[in-house]
Amino acid sequence: MVANVKQKALKESSLGFFEAIGQSLANISPTLTPALNMGAVVALAGQGTWAVYIIATIALIIVGLNMSVLASRFSAAGSFFVFISRSMGPIAGGMAGWSLILAYLGTAMALLAGLAIFVNNTLHPFGVQIPPAGSYLLFGTLAWYLAYRDIKLSSRISLAIESISVTVITALVFLVVGKNYDPATVHVQFAMQGAPLKGMFEGVVLAIFSFVGFESAVTLGKETRDPTRNIPRAVMGSMLFAGAFFTVMAFLMVVAYRGNTTVFGNDAAPLETLLGFLGMEAFSAPLYAIASMSLFACVLASINAASRLLFSMGRYQFVHRSMGLVHGSHQTPHIAVTISSILTVLGPVFLLGWGAMNTYAITGTVATFGFIFVYLLISLAAPIYLYKKRAMGPAALFMGISGMVLMAGAFFGSVYPVPAYPFNILPYVFLAYLAAGGILLVRIKRVSPVILERVELDLEGSEGMVLGRK
Fold first, then answer.
1. Helix crossing, 80-88 with 284-315: angle to 10°?
2. SS (H, E, C) 221-280
3. I need a surface site. Which of 182, 233, 380, 417 has the fewest CB within 10 A?
4. Residues ≥6 apart with Cβ < 8 Å to 156
5. What is the CA radius of gyration of the chain?
6. What is the mean pLDDT of the chain?
7. Residue whose C-alpha is closest to residue 356's, from 26, 136, 29, 108
8. Are the C-beta atoms of residues 249 and 50 closer than 8 Å to each other?
9. How does pLDDT run across 105-140, given as a tens digit for each residue?
10. With the CA atoms of 181, 185, 191 and 195 taken in that order, what torsion angle do they form, in degrees rounded to the nearest 10?
11. Cα gap 400→67, rounded to integer Å
């Protein structure tokens, strides 16, 4: 029997543009790229790193424009589950939702592991260390509490944290550039001297990974005021900000390292190195504390996003219908939040033997596969939707094809050349997860086809929240 979707609702129109963009920015976690991820891109692209981030920004802008085609026409907590169901049918939408749940939970797991590293870096000068399992439980519980209580509060906290961390990192980099500036390093970068073309291509794949999660404001479609206007603005605004920030940081950090991309590319702790250039090593603890808050904001944003997807899919019984319940006073999907938080903690705990850094890399890689799959599907769904509405032009077709090609290329670049174990088996882990979702959906179609029929009916009505646009 199909549950009635008109149960107690989420707190509609409780969020504004700033809370929506705070969700997307927190999921991107801009601080993490210069603090941890950028060195890997520099190791590949050398003096061309800044150009790599420009190319990655353009690629994700194309994907973002495809998202905006649908986000500007209707909104729902299920985001891509609903969008793709509307364009390509509930089976394809269910696969998108299934993949995106893994993506958000994998991101939360990865950042929880990264948070354990950064917290211990913060506490190291004081001779204190927190076991990884204790860190996972502590911060996972705190994220659950904030997500359980109030989405508006958690979104505002995330935006405030990201604003502080980005400001501090930017100030630090500018101070070091002022000390180490050499016009020759600027000229070499603009000329991209010695930048390997193959390395730049591989670097684009890694750079794209810095942006994943920029779309997560879409999951707040039911809780945001004027969603068909504010959600696309939040998605594109967070993407453009992140692209500009990453590009500028890539250029300036190479200058800060006096143009030595080999040292930068092999530096496991660039924040400490920057402080060392200024003779301010004593400030490493507060700097890592700020970076830790940024990672926590990403964990919180990822749990919020995953729970909204589970909520929407629970309402349609693609997953257990308890996921679709709303708390009586907080008006949050409390069961979905709780399940998302538990899974977020269990993943890193299961990988304790691998260490926090490997846990970060493993869960982050699997999460990225989930994002790429959904970005590819949304790039296909957008022109299909416009075609059905007889509103598709050459530009929309070009954007759709370009988005699909770019995401297929990103996936290929992440699996070839074949990486070392365990990363060589992760694509197959992801494909097995997709297969399990496909089997679940086929079973639903055979055992309870009325569920799929109800999805299609609701997507044409209240759940789709169509606002009179083609």
1. 40
2. CCCECCHHHHHHHHHHHHHHHHHHHHHHHHHHHHHHCCCCHHHHHCCCCHHHHHHHHCCC
3. 417
4. 18, 19, 22
5. 22
6. 89
7. 136
8. no
9. 999 999 999 999 999 999 999 999 999 999 999 999
10. -130
11. 10
How far apart (Å, rounded) are the C-alpha atoms in residues 272 and 280? 9
Contact 381, 396 (CB under 8 A): no
pLDDT, average across residues 455-462: 52
- Which two tokens mark 25? 């920015």
Q: Is the pLDDT of residue 306 over 80?
A: yes
C-alpha span between 200 and 202 (Å, rounded): 5
What structural domains and CATH numbers belong to the chain?
A: 17-459 (1.20.1740.10)
| Helix, strand, or coil (residue 119) | helix
Per-residue pLDDT reduced to its tens digit, 144-188? 999 998 778 878 888 899 999 999 999 999 999 999 999 999 999
Q: From CA 256, how far away is CA 186, in angstroms rounded?
A: 11
Q: How far apart are CA 232 and CA 235, in angstroms?
A: 5
Copy the structure tokens of residue 158: 């995330």
Helix axes 284-315, 334-350, angle to 10 degrees: 130
Q: Which helix (H) or strand (E) element contains residue 30?
A: none
- pTM here is 0.90
For 108-112, 220-224, 390-394, 418-422, which range has the lowest pLDDT when averaged over its residues?
A: 220-224
Residue 465: left (phi > 0), alpha (psi -120 to 50), or beta? left
Angle, to 10 degrees, between the axis of helix 356-388 and the axis of helix 49-71?
50
What are the CA-CA distances from residue 46 to residues 16, 193, 256, 315, 331 (Å)?
A: 40, 9, 14, 49, 49
Which of 2-11, 59-68, 224-233 shows the lowest per-residue confidence on average (mean pLDDT)?
2-11
Exposed, middle or buried: residue 68 (CB in 10 Å: 0-12, 13-18, 19+)? buried
Q: How far apart are CA 147 and CA 154, in angstroms?
A: 6
β-sheet bridge partners, residue 397:
none
Alpha-carbon distance values, 312 to 77, 377, 446 (Å): 6, 19, 21
Q: 212: helix, coil or strand?
A: coil
Distance CA(254)–CA(203), nearest Å, equals 15
- Side chain identity at 373, as an amino acid letter? F
Q: Are 208 and 55 in contact (CB under 8 A)?
A: no
* Three-state DSSP state, 15: strand
Place of tokens 């150009």: 51
The count of residues in the chain is: 470
Cα four-point dihedral sign 245, 43, 110, 287: negative
